[in-house]
């Protein structure tokens, strides 16, 4: 299981924003913007509801004057949209930087599942906010939906490459596998929400074992993508 210090330093989004904001190489205007976003992220990670966020709370947490917020964002919705864009880049960078194993391999899938599980757990408050968007038509929701679409397209492309490499009769184009990718992505997010957001008692023991979570999700993903749980016959 990931060490707490390592989780905070490498996977905690608010901590990563604060670290960037402290860089002396940035212009003051960018440092202040990141400081505000870090404070906003920290509020969400601490359990604040999106509808209950206040500019005064964010600026107080950032140790900045109330009016400073409006120099960077016209209203809270714009700040949340910017936060999602930053979070999207953060997730992509962390996931891309943690890839192990050959492309299309079971090892690669499990490594991705494990890292995403750890990212979800470390940023549970923000994930609660994102998953709760539902049919929200705000720019904030559209930013998150764009992130999901890009992720599902990458999943579909990976499945198409894997099926072709294995010589499966069920080989398909990535576009045809998008529904499968959406179904699997929804499964993963809902399962992790049960673990880290709803704290389902029946899953309490599993929630303490990230390796076991990743193994389970990988088996399910592999079976849905290729009709089996092992990697026999794959490259």
What does this structure look like?
It is a single chain. 68% of the residues lie in helices and 0% in strands. It has 235 residues and is mainly alpha-helical. The chain is elongated and about 60 Å long. The model is unreliable at 1-9 (pLDDT under 50).
Helix and strand arrangement:
Blueprint: H1 4-11, H2 13-21, H3 28-45, H4 55-62, H5 68-72, H6 76-97, H7 106-122, H8 124-131, H9 139-166, H10 178-196, H11 210-226
What share of the residues does DSSP label as strand, in percent? under 5%
| Distance linking N and C termini | 29 Å
**What about the largest sheet?**
none
How many beta-strand runs?
0
CATH architecture: Orthogonal Bundle
Report the mean per-residue pLDDT as an integer: 84
- Unreliable spans: 1-9
Count up the domains.
1
CATH class category label: Mainly Alpha
CATH homologous superfamily annotation: Tetracycline Repressor, domain 2
Task: Give the class from helix and strand content and strand pairing.
Answer: mainly alpha
Look up the CATH topology.
Tetracycline Repressor, domain 2
Radius of gyration: 19 Å
The shape, in one word, is: elongated
* Helical residues, percent: 55-70%
Q: Helix and strand succession? A: HHHHHHHHHHH
- The total of helices stands at 11
């Amino acid at each position: 299981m990931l060490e707490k210090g390592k989780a905070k330093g490498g996977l905690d989004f608010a901590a990563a924003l604060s670290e960037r904001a402290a860089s002396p190489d940035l212009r003051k205007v960018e440092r202040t913007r990141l400081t505000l976003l870090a404070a906003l992220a920290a509020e969400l990670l601490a359990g604040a509801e999106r509808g209950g966020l206040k500019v005064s709370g964010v600026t107080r947490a950032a140790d900045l004057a109330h009016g400073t917020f409006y120099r960077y964002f016209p209203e809270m919705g714009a700040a949340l949209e910017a936060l999602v864009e930053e979070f999207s880049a953060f997730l992509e960078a962390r996931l891309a930087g943690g890839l192990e194993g050959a492309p299309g391999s079971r090892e690669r899938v499990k490594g991705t599942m494990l890292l995403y599980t750890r990212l979800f757990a470390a940023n549970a408050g923000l994930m609660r906010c994102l998953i709760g968007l539902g049919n929200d038509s705000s720019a904030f929701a559209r930013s998150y939906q764009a992130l999901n679409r890009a992720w599902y397209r990458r999943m579909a492309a990976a499945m198409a490459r894997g099926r072709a490499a294995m010589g499966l009769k069920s080989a398909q184009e990535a576009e045809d596998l998008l529904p499968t990718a959406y179904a699997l992505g929804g499964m993963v997010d809902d399962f992790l929400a049960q673990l880290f957001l709803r704290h389902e008692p029946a899953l309490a023991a599993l929630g303490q074992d990230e390796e076991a979570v990743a193994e389970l999700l990988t088996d399910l993903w592999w079976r849905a993508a290729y009709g089996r749980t092992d990697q026999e016959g794959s490259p």
